[in-house]
Fold:
Amino acid sequence: MISPDSTPQSSLQDWQPPSPEQRRALVAQARFDAEGLLAAIAQDEDRNVLMLAWMNSEALDETLRTGRVCYFSRSRQRLWRKGESSGQVQHLLKAAFDCDCDALLLTVHQTGVACHTGRRSCFYQNVTPEGLQADSAPLITPTQLYGRTDSGRS
Structure:
């Protein structure tokens, strides 16, 4: 895992979960796509975008209830609790829907890295006239993250 020095300290309040009734109302207000998914963008406390993933209604409800970010893995077709195999957990600090309620912006406290490549952010491939250029090196290897040589995602 990444040393604590590489992870910003939380400057926002800890997540206060809505009541069960409010949670149900919030999930009902979300506009999921035809596959029952909602885009979820995670950013850190300093507003650095970390990743984009997907939530179904169950993942959204769990995230709002527990404060530990949970996504829906399209490849595995199951809930994906961020950090379940890597330890790189996201703790919810704030959540905001966009104007159409079809995308969610999550402000999180990220433990370690967010990207399965070992980088802090998944958005490291800059588009340039020469093609894609990485703007950061991995801070940790997939082997260190997952204990195997493939880049299993978590």
User: Anything to note?
Assistant: The longest helix spans residues 20-29. DSSP finds three helices and eight strands in the chain.
